[in-house]
Amino acid sequence: MLVFVVVVLGYLIGSVPTAYWFGKWFHGIDIREFGSKNSGATNTFRVLGKKTGWSVLLIDISKGALASLLPLFFTSYFSGYKDEQLILQLCSSFSAVFGHVFPIFASFRGGKGVATSLGIVLGINPIAALICLALFLVVFVFTRFVSLGAICASLAFPIVSYFVLKEDARIMIIFTIVLASLVIIAHRKNISRLMKGEENKMNLLKKKA
Fold first, then answer.
1. Residues 24-73 pLDDT 10s
2. Dihedrals phi, psi of 163, to nearest 5 degrees
3. Gap between the Cα atoms of 125 and 157, Å rounded
4. Backbone angles phi, psi at 3, to 5 degrees
5. 102: closest CA among 92, 112, 93?
């Protein structure tokens, strides 16, 4: 029963369509009809500008962090074993990513889950999150491709967790690989555009066009 509760709550947290609601409430547009037509932070920066973009980014990260820490609010309902707690955290986390990509509050048309995934990793493995975030920033600064930075950081996540931080729990290894795979799959169109030289560069500090 507890697994069901955290899965449902995680999904509902992830389903909060931050970019879509901000676009509707403050700009009177459906963000999914402009730019890359994606309901995520990157497209929000591109279409609605840095003020809204930063707001969406921070909230989407917070969604992931909240979902990953959700089981900690139910500690009195399970025996307290570390593995049991971790499994519940992963269940709520994956549900949050699924909710972000397929939000029930926005006709199941959401974002790619990168910011939410970052929040999840910050909640479960903050050191790995900071290392991967640093890698993302390096790639982004030198290339101006948000997608390439996200892909590189995702590929690095399992490597950093296993080889650098020596995470040897089987469930954590599976978690890192699955989460990285989900982010890369979500960027399959970006990968195609990168290979063709058609991907758009990005300046997260610029104002709305």
1. 999 999 999 998 888 988 899 989 988 999 999 999 999 999 999 998 88
2. -90, -35
3. 10
4. -60, -45
5. 112
Q: Rounded distance, CA 41 to CA 57, Å?
A: 5
Q: Which long-range contacts (CB under 8 A, 24 or more apart) does 152-159 make?
A: 154/117, 154/179, 154/180, 154/183, 154/184, 155/180, 155/184, 156/131, 156/132, 157/121, 157/128, 157/132
DSSP class per residue in 122-149? HHH-HHHHHHHHHHHHHHHHHH--HHHH
Q: pTM for this structure?
A: 0.85
118's enclosing H/E stretch is helix 114-124
Rounded CA-CA distance 21/172 in Å is: 34
Please tell me whether residue 203 adopts helix, strand or coil conformation. coil
Residue found by looking up tokens 């890192």 in the block? 176
175: closest CA among 75, 46, 89?
A: 89
And the tokens for 168?
């040897």
